[in-house]
Design a protein that fits this description.
The chain has three helices and no strands. By secondary structure, it is mainly alpha-helical.
Length: about 90
């Protein structure tokens, strides 16, 4: 089975790369890649800044930000209870 990325197979990726080389030329591809890399980095940094700002604001206003940890702990407790209840059933099968 061929690997796919975003529902695009290897032949499609090859054709897209071929078109990019034909349109922009081989000498412009590194410049385009650098620009894309910088853009992705800026988006990532902006996202991290927004997350940090939200967490800092929530902490300053006394909002509990540990709700995800509490939910995860509750799920693990329920899972352990189910495992302890179904343990003998699983062993007998």
């Amino acid at each position: 089975m061929a690997t796919t990325f975003l529902f695009i197979g290897a032949p499609e990726v090859f054709i897209i790369l071929l078109i990019v080389v034909m349109v922009f030329g081989a000498d412009k591809i590194p410049e385009i890649a650098r620009g894309l890399g910088k853009g992705i980095r800026q988006v990532k940094d902006a996202t991290n800044d927004i997350k940090k700002e939200i967490n800092d604001s929530a902490t300053n206003h006394g909002i509990d930000t540990s709700i995800a940890e509490d939910i995860k702990k509750g799920i693990n407790e329920v899972k352990d209870d189910i495992d302890s209840f179904t343990g003998p059933i699983k062993r007998s099968l």
